[in-house]
């Protein structure tokens, strides 16, 4: 069938079952938006800033398990996507992102609103394309969706010059993908899996260290089964949180920099560490030579380049963690390891996660109440900072994929647009954003999108009048010389919410928390809850720079 | 240790930038890089000489494999292989020195490709060692200009780096 490339693009999206695209138009994208005008199947969500579009697509992808789609115009539209692409790349989120480009004849001439976006995004996309030949478009889109969503997921960018978009082609959507340079390994090597089973049988003090790969591979069920079968306690990376039930007796909580003392000590004492879909990030390991010093290491990951990158591995297994666990499960014996679990229980009671409840409104308490009010069932998006770590510590996620947060890049401003995307993906679920007074102001413009899309999003603002996390760093590393972390002016957040047609509540005392949260969560529309917490509250425990995770400052 | 990687890539625009960018971004050292087309016009071949221990090499190989446009990688250094490089050297040569220079060219089986009034331009192919020795022998005459192509390499005998065969251990996990 003959059609313009722009129409072909929309047709491709329909064939990929794309339901929503997040975007912002501009001159170079006119043909594509004109094509969208004629599409009945695809909803376009107009954000208020392109960064919002890509984060919303990211939140949508995480919440739905589908590929997120965003689009922006050339030049400034394209550069506004950069942070969001880097964010999705670091957290392995499948996105396909379209940018308009100046006409091919002008490419390379510093034309109006021209940037080399494929060049700029080379290191922060899984792959990218500049479409020069109009008839390539359908194959490029097909490949992009395949690359984004398979193997280790990630963002793929497609840059489309305006004249190409206007050219007529014979449309034919390829059925299959043929990329000879891209063949992810899904099934682990049987010898390696046998070897892993042998190490597990020989281990006396195993710990499972599970990352975001568990969620991407939808391997939560297999993880639970393995942990229970081999009686191994489980600790999650930040990205792995929600991948193992937070209320399970084998759960150790998060490990690493702000991990629980008992998770970090269990890892230090273990004789076998089973890393599943995790990447030995520096925020997890602390000083490398003190990380799991007595342990043999099994590492399962879909990305071969992660294996052996930071630490030496005894049993490397490249594969999809779900498939590997399915193959491994029949090879391991049911065990109880009473002595080791008793030791872990001892660590848990000796070093519990705790905070001072005595005076004032405590952010940790707000998160605990949020957990109670939502039955642990909400999808929780966060921004970046102390509030994010309090969520990680005090909201014991029950179901895989219910935490939506920027882990690898730590992008302030991710939360609100990501929550928009998540709520659009899951219109019937309770979606809650926990944010900070710094972070919310980084993409606050998306409050308009919340209202325009009539999203019942609940925003819990932990307002400490500061860039709390950096303030905490300055307290520890700069001897309390607080520089550029205290806000001397804040807008009236309640009035601001109201200006956007969003209901506002304030909490300033612990006694109000349960009641106000219950009321706010029950509102049919969007709500912002401004929680006035102390500036001084810190995230503890905390492993100091250069230290092993067996050391920590705690309360 | 130095490794020579034979890398088959899709002949797409930007593929060189992807590979070069990867090396600089991750701090791997490239000694030389040569690119050209192969028997298949859709496929280019890069010969990359990198310096590093086994761990670095493993990372380089794995990171290269992550590039969608990289089809195949062989570390030819772990096997029997031939390697060649071509150099063009322009040296100062007045009429009195020409004889000597031509003798040196003879010894290295180099060819004279251009004669100027005060210069001779020579072409020589060979492996690293030979090219280095050739360069050293000409240095006393005054090297005006020198250009090397970078090394290219190929496995010996019935072993291949091509799309159809597993000529060498494929460096995949
Ligand atoms: C885009 C961006 N800029 C700067 C930082 C550095 N940073 C990390 S946490 C933080 C403070 C966050 O403040 P807020 O959102 O109020 O959260 P709090 O720590 O107070 O809970 C800053 C500035 C960042 N992570 N992201």
Structure description:
The complex is a heterodimer of chains A (555) and B (173). Chain A has 22 helices and 20 strands. Chain A has 555 residues and is α/β, with parallel strands linked by helices. Chain A has a 6-stranded parallel β-sheet, sandwiched between helices. The N and C termini of chain A lie far apart (68 Å). The mean pLDDT of chain A is 97. Chain A folds into 3 domains: 2-170, Rossmann fold; 190-351, Rossmann fold, CATH 3.40.50; 363-532, Rossmann fold. Chain B is α+β, with helices and mostly antiparallel strands and 173 residues long. Chain B folds into 2 domains: 2-78, Alpha-Beta Plaits (2-Layer Sandwich), CATH 3.30.70; 82-152, Alpha-Beta Plaits (2-Layer Sandwich), CATH 3.30.70. Chain B is 28% helix and 39% strand. In chain B, strand 6 (111-115) and strand 7 form a beta hairpin. Chain A binds chain B through residues 118-119, 122-123, 126-127, 130, 132, 147, 179-182, 185, 303-305, 307-309, 316, 318, and chain B through 9-10, 13-14, 17-18, 21, 25, 55, 58-59, 62-63, 65-72, 163, 172-173. The complex binds thiamine diphosphate (TPP). Thiamine diphosphate is lined by residues 383-387, 410-413, 436-439, 462, 464, 466-470 of chain A.
Please give a quick description of this structure.
The complex is a heterodimer of chains A (555) and B (173). Chain A has 555 residues and is an alpha/beta fold.
Summary tags:
heterodimer, A: 555 residues, alpha/beta, Rossmann fold, 6-stranded parallel β-sheet, 22 helices, globular, B: 173 residues, alpha+beta, Alpha-Beta Plaits, 2 domains, 5-stranded antiparallel β-sheet, 39% strand, disordered C terminus, binds thiamine diphosphate, Acetolactate synthase small subunit (chain B), acetolactate synthase regulator activity (chain B), EC 2.2.1.6 (chain B), acetolactate synthase activity (chain B)
Strand coverage percent of chain A: 15-25%
Q: What share of residues of chain B is helical?
A: 25-40%
**Which chains make the largest contact?**
A-B, 22 and 24 residues
Low-pLDDT residue spans of chain B: 167-173
| Count of runs of 4 or more consecutive helical residues of chain A | 22
């Amino acid at each position: 069938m003959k059609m313009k490339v722009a129409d072909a693009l929309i047709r491709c999206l329909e064939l990929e079952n794309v339901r929503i695209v997040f975007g912002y138009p501009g001159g170079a994208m006119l043909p594509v938006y004109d094509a969208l005008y004629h599409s009945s199947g695809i909803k376009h969500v107009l954000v208020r800033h392109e960064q919002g579009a890509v984060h919303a697509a990211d939140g949508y992808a995480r919440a739905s398990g589908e590929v997120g789609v965003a689009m922006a115009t050339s030049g400034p539209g394209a550069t506004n996507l950069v942070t969001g692409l880097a964010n999705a790349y670091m957290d392995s989120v499948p996105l396909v992102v379209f940018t308009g480009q100046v006409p091919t004849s002008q490419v390379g001439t510093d034309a109006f609103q021209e940037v080399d976006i494929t060049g700029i995004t080379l290191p922060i996309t899984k792959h990218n394309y500049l479409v020069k030949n109009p008839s390539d478009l359908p194959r490029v889109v097909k490949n992009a969706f395949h690359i984004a969503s398979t193997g280790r997921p990630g963002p793929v960018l497609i840059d489309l010059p305006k004249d190409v978009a206007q050219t007529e082609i014979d449309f034919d959507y390829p059925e299959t993908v043929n990329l000879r340079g891209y063949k992810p390994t899904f099934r682990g090597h049987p010898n390696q899996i046998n070897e892993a089973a042998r190490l597990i049988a020989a281990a006396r003090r195993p710990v499972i260290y599970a990352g975001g790969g568990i969620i991407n591979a939808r391997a939560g069920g297999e993880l639970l089964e393995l942990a229970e079968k081999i009686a191994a306690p489980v600790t999650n990376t930040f990205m792995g949180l929600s991948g193992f039930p937070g209320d399970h007796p084998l759960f150790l909580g998060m490990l690493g920099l702000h991990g629980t003392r008992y998770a970090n000590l269990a890892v230090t004492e273990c004789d076998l560490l089973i890393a599943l879909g995790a990447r030995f990030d520096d925020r997890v390991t602390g000083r490398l030579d003190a990380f799991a010093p007595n342990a043999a290491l099994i590492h399962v990951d879909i990305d071969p380049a992660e294996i052996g990158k930071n630490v030496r591995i005894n049993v490397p297994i490249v594969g999809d963690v779900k498939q590997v666990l399915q193959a491994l499960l029949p090879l391991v014996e049911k065990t109880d390891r009473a002595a080791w679990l008793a030791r872990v229980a001892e660590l848990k009671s000796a070093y519990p996660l705790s905070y001072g409840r005595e005076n004032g409104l405590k952010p940790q308490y707000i998160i605990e109440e949020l957990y109670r009010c939502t039955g642990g069932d909400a999808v929780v998006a966060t921004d970046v900072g102390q509030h994010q770590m309090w969520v990680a510590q005090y909201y014991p996620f029950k179901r895989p994929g219910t935490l939506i947060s920027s882990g690898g890049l730590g992008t302030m401003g991710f939360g609100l647009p990501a929550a928009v995307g998540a709520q659009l993906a899951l219109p019937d679920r309770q979606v809650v954003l926990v944010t900070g007074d710094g972070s919310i102001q980084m993409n606050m413009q998306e409050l308009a999108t919340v209202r325009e899309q009539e999203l019942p999003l609940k925003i819990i603002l932990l307002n400490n009048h500061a860039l709390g996390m950096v303030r905490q760093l300055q307290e520890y590393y700069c001897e309390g010389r607080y520089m550029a972390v205290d806000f001397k002016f804040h807008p009236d957040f309640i009035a601001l919410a109201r200006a956007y047609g969003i209901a506002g509540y304030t909490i300033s005392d612990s006694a109000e928390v349960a009641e106000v949260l219950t009321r706010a969560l029950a509102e049919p529309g969007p709500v912002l809850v401004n929680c006035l917490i102390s500036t001084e509250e810190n995230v503890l425990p905390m492993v100091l720079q250069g230290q092993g995770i067996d050391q920590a400052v705690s309360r | 240790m130095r490794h020579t990687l034979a890398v088959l890539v899709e002949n797409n625009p930007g593929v060189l930038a992807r590979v070069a960018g990867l090396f600089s971004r991750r701090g791997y050292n490239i000694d030389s890089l040569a690119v050209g087309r192969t028997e298949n016009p859709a496929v280019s071949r890069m010969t990359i000489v990198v310096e590093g221990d086994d761990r670095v090499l493993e990372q380089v190989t794995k990171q290269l494999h992550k590039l969608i446009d990289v089809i195949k990688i062989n570390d030819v250094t772990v096997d029997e292989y031939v390697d060649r490089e071509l150099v063009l050297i322009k040296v100062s040569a007045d009429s009195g020195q020409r004889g000597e220079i031509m003798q040196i060219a003879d010894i290295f089986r180099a060819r004279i490709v251009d004669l100027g009034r005060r210069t001779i331009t020579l072409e020589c192919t060979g492996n690293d060692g030979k090219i280095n020795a050739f360069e050293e022998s000409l240095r006393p005459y005054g090297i005006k200009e020198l250009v090397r192509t970078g090394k290219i390499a190929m496995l010996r005998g019935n072993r291949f780096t091509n799309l159809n065969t597993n000529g060498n251990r494929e460096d995949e996990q």
